[in-house]
Design brief:
This protein is of the alpha+beta class and about 290 residues long. Helix content is about 30%, strand content about 30%. The chain is built from 9 helices and 10 strands. Strands 1, 2, 3, 4, 5 and 6 form a 6-stranded mixed β-sheet that branches. Strands 8-9-7-10 form a 4-stranded antiparallel β-sheet, with helices on one face. A hairpin with a 6-residue loop joins strand 8 and strand 9. The protein is globular. The relative contact order is 0.17.
């Protein structure tokens, strides 16, 4: 239970989509998707304190990008408080380290962390899951911070097998890209997949398996933000890059490397060539 003087410190982990397939459209207008979502050792820091009113204090390098946006944290706090039957009187401190609108699930991760922090065993697991779905499609998977296969509109989750260790570089050209705009571009110019992958993934066949997949939103995203194409091409030509791919609806691109030194060397090049871009090296959350 969150008490008057109790402080809860939480971590909201970023994710990448190792693949993302767009399937047929649902009756409600949303698309069926399938993806392998993995969480990273990159996170926003959140502190929750019981207070006499609701408030948010934001710090971090991406603070300014949140000022004029619909606030998923406020939506989460008020919605969950109403569901539990308490007043939404919490002071939320957010140290924003994950880029905004980047395909890294930062907003969903923040929402999921808030849900865990406020709930404190008041609601059952299934009730939390159902509430999380009302906030956003990525919020349910972010509740658990476990690598998972994602199907439908995020309502079908299954545990991913153990994955090999690799270093990851994330590169974002810092150009805002609307998810809605990417899907509209996809609908106009691309065909939906009809079949899902049948072969099972395991630790030994990971690289051959993942190369049979794709991010179906890459092509429409590249038409809108050409820098995505530039980043993918750069990584494809980089030494020892095992896979380069866009995550989510972009514009962040990731590259996988077996050796962390290779990833860090590429990051140094990016920071010199493109000082206005955001890039970081990280790894999979264990």
């Amino acid at each position: 239970m969150v008490t008057k003087h109790k402080v809860f410190n939480l971590k909201a982990y970023a994710k990448i989509n190792l693949f993302l397939h767009v399937l047929k459209k649902r009756k409600n207008g949303f698309h069926n998707l399938e993806s392998l979502i993995c969480f990273l050792n990159l996170y926003d820091e959140i502190k929750i304190i019981k207070d006499n009113k609701f408030s948010i204090e934001i710090t971090g390098p991406f603070k300014s990008l949140l000022n004029n946006k619909e606030n998923i944290i406020k939506k989460t706090v008020f919605g969950l408080s109403n569901l539990i039957g308490i007043k939404p009187n919490f002071k939320i401190f957010l140290n924003k380290q994950i880029p905004v609108s980047a395909g890294l699930g930062g907003g969903s991760a923040d929402s999921a962390a808030i849900i865990r922090g406020i709930n404190r065993n008041k609601l059952k697991k299934q009730e939390l899951y159902e509430f999380a779905k009302t906030i956003g499609s990525d919020v349910p998977v972010c509740l658990y911070n476990k690598h998972a296969f994602f199907k439908g509109y995020g309502e079908i989750l299954s545990k991913a097998p153990k994955l090999p260790k690799f270093s990851i570089i994330l590169i974002n050209p810092m150009i805002e890209l609307s998810t809605k705009k990417v899907f509209l571009e996809y609908e106009k110019n691309f065909l939906f997949k009809k079949k899902t992958i049948k072969e099972n993934l395991n630790n030994k066949n990971f690289y051959s398996w993942i190369l049979k997949t794709s991010n179906d939103l890459s092509m429409p995203a590249k038409k809108i933000v050409i820098e995505i194409k530039e980043i993918l091409s750069f990584l494809d030509k980089s030494k020892n890059c095992l896979l380069s791919r866009m995550t989510g609806s972009g514009p962040t691109v990731f590259g996988l490397f077996k050796n962390s030194v290779d990833a860090r060397n590429i990051n140094k090049v990016i920071k010199i060539k493109h000082p206005n871009w955001w890039s970081i090296t990280t790894s999979l959350k264990s």
